[in-house]
Amino acid sequence: MSRPVVFLLTALSIGIFFGQAISVCNIVLLSLLFITMIFLLVSLIYGKTNCSFMFIVLSFFFLGALLINRYLYPPPRVTDLDNYRVEREKIVLEGIVDEPPRFMENGTVLIIQASGILRENRFQRVKGKIRLSVANNTYPFRYGDYIRVFTTLRIPRNFNNPGGFDYRRHLLYQEIRFQASVSRPSDITVLRRNRGNILRSIIENYRTSLSDMIQDALQQPEQGILRALTLGDRSGISQEMYEMFSNAGVSHILAISGLHVGIIASLFFFGLQGLMKQWPCLLLRFDIQRFCAFPCAFVIIGYFCITGCGISTFRATIMILTFLLSFYVGRDRDPVNTIALAAFIILLIDPPALFAVSFQLSFAAVTAIVVIMPLLNSLFPMDVTATAGRYGRIRRSFILFSMVTLCATIGTAPLTAFYFNKISLITLVANIIVVPLIGFAALPLAMLFIIIAPVSSGIALFFLGLASLITKFTVSIITLLAGIPRSVLMVATPSPAVIVLYYLSVAAAIPVLRRKKERRPVHAGLAAALCLLVLTTFAAAGFPHLRRYFRHDLAITCIDVGQGSSALLQFPGGGTMLVDGGGFYSRHFDVGRYAVSPFLRHEGINRLDIVVLTHPDCDHLGGLPYILKHFSIGEVWTNGDGTDTEQYREFRRIMTARNIPHRIMHAGSVPVTIGDSFISVLSPPPPDSEIGRNFFPGDTNNRGLVLKVFHRGRSILLPADIGEPAEKRLVDTGCDLESTVILVPHHGCPTSSNRFFLEHVRPRFALCSCGYFNTFGFPHADVLLRYREAGAGFFRTDLDGAVTVTINEEEITVRCHGVPDQ
């Protein structure tokens, strides 16, 4: 068998995937692994080669499941922090800053390795990792600081929406089981310094001095980009700059990955080779590739240390070291086996890497280059005589680099669509320009800065200045490219089936190209299968966009946005309306970006016909600026009220910049028809009426838009955050309030959902948007009792995740998309 590692890698990967999908007890897995090993031993004794290989593969399957269990279901220990976590209860915790701090605009994120807690004036030893957010921090925390913090431990919680990011599992893969936060400087104290690993402390101190030099010498955005390239610190890159790189299809250049490590390795490896060729006697005495590979490995390890020992850099380092190892084991002629071996080693050391975006993109790109590039090279051979001379070599290098970029794009396109919901149409051009400038010019100069800094800061800063000039020029090019209209294609989240079909299509195309290269006729059946796969892939990719246009029912989804409100209505025929966008009082987290947008993309939605802002409170407004900026919007409805906040100013600024029609709605507005449904506005009253001029001035909640959606004899009431006064007015004016579904007003506040109001609404289903363990205690017990007395089924996002109610002529169905995090 020429490539046994491929089979072992496949078995290990399937085992890891199985282990994270299905919870199986460690004892059961260990038993199965032990039994398999016994069968393997017996088959080896009796010389059953095929059986032996089968049991080896099966062993790695069970091993993969066991390895991932260590992160998701670790065996309980007496010293685990789980034994001391009580929701809402403050504790005094001590521990060591286990990773370099992440300094951000409004705070710092620390990863703490707990060592003990103080309870009843007694110190008790504990173990466990905690993600600690320190708000408004100005203290220069460092790796190895031994701190004491007064805080509350919380289990990380996801936004339980279809298509949402599994944040809790992401932290578990880093062995972080809890998170905490402090907002007062007095709640955190540094007791001692330099309590971490001595060698890493030395490296971190050097990294800090380099970071200070970069910060003092350069301006943004060059400062942030070069800190990311040299130190792996992306905290200095603004969201706008990252978005611009992403739109140009070159965001990978900002995160240290296989590309950066590969460039450093290539420059050193081939530079050392060129130096050795100056002395022919060395070529006769040594195997030049093996000789260069050994010192190159130390350079790569040094780069890994300088960049902060990040997990993605670690994977890239293992991959490159495996390639260098192939020169010693004689497997350099089989790059596919080498790639498989690198992935195999990484997954043995770090099983969660299988689910990491950087791991998947890196290996998809490298595999595509290795597999597709030789075929393209043979199909479009270069005339060697035509490439003689300097300009000929430059032309050939340009063509080869373009082909490599094309192969990498083919390999990563579906993953990019899946994780980022966008495909850059200028990625080939951008990469051809940016990668040489940043990778082969700015990055080597930055490396010289790192090496020379301890010897001469003046010379080091000279190289840093050159790197900054190149970076500034590159940013101007990216700004120009990213500004091209329609240069980015926003796509719905493709299903795993679509991704599999895509790669099957590519795999089916390879034999076709190989047969053409060998001048052999292409088998008709193979060609037909290829065409079918390609057509099926495109059809499946377009299905999420098209399926909603064929729906005949009305659906409302109360999106899980924490302590806020956001609801999506999908009408028969494909119409869409988003009512509010959620949001937090803190701007550290963009709900629109991380909660609402992933759900919309999952639903195949790139365009919203109507976006409604019921009232300008931040828990309804906060996520909308991102939505307005990144989705096609038909029109925006508001009640005309505004606030003097940056969020609202940004909301209006985006509407103006994108020329989005803005309609001020009120109870006198003409009902709007969408498909078989129509929407009427019940409140507030018209601003030019007598009651409208004096309608709760300054009370944003009671002035909120109240909408009612009618569909074939059934209806949905959307009352925003109104309270008792507005509810009483709706009842007194004789509005038709009876509704099948109600979005619980004001998140279940006790001053809303009054009995007299519910007697007129008579809902069958109530959907409540509220945050898990929110500080307000919503929904209030009295509110729950009132809905129970009204006979309504009560669903809440904090416990049920996103809730979808689908209404058609025959029935009404309710589906909950999440479960609470315990």
- Strand percentage, roughly? 15-25%
Helix content bin: 40-55%
Shape: globular
Query: Gap between N and C termini, in Å?
Result: 47 Å
Quickly give the structural class: alpha/beta
Largest sheet: 8 strands, mixed
* Low-confidence runs: none
Arithmetic mean pLDDT: 83
Global Rg: 30 Å
Specify the number of helices.
27
Number of strands: 25
Give an overview in words.
Helix 2 runs antiparallel to helix 3, helix 8 crosses helix 10 (288-306) and helix 8 packs parallel to helix 11 (311-329). The model has no long low-confidence stretch (mean pLDDT 83). With 822 residues, the chain is α/β, with parallel strands linked by helices. It is built from 27 helices and 25 strands. The longest helix has 31 residues, at 390-420.
Question: How would you summarize the topology of this molecule?
Answer:
Layout: H1 4-21, H2 26-45, H3 49-72, E1 91-97, E2 102-104, E3 107-119, E4 122-125, E5 129-135, E6 146-151, H4 167-172, E7 176-182, E8 188-192, H5 198-217, H6 222-231, H7 239-247, H8 258-276, H9 280-285, H10 288-306, H11 311-329, H12 335-349, H13 357-379, H14 390-420, E9 422-424, H15 427-452, H16 457-482, E10 488-490, H17 496-517, H18 524-546, E11 554-558, E12 567-570, E13 576-579, H19 591-602, E14 607-612, H20 618-621, H21 624-630, E15 632-638, H22 646-657, E16 662-664, E17 672-674, E18 677-683, H23 690-693, E19 706-711, E20 714-718, H24 724-732, E21 741-743, H25 755-761, E22 765-768, H26 781-789, E23 793-796, H27 797-800, E24 803-807, E25 812-816
Parallel strand pairs: 5-7, 13-14, 14-15, 15-16, 20-21, 21-22, 22-23
Antiparallel strand pairs: 1-3, 1-6, 2-3, 3-4, 3-5, 6-8, 9-10, 11-12, 11-24, 12-13, 17-18, 18-19, 19-20, 24-25
Helix pairs in contact: 1-3, 1-12, 2-3, 5-6, 6-16, 8-10, 8-11, 8-15, 10-11, 11-12, 12-13, 13-14, 13-17, 14-15, 14-17, 15-16, 17-18, 19-21, 21-22
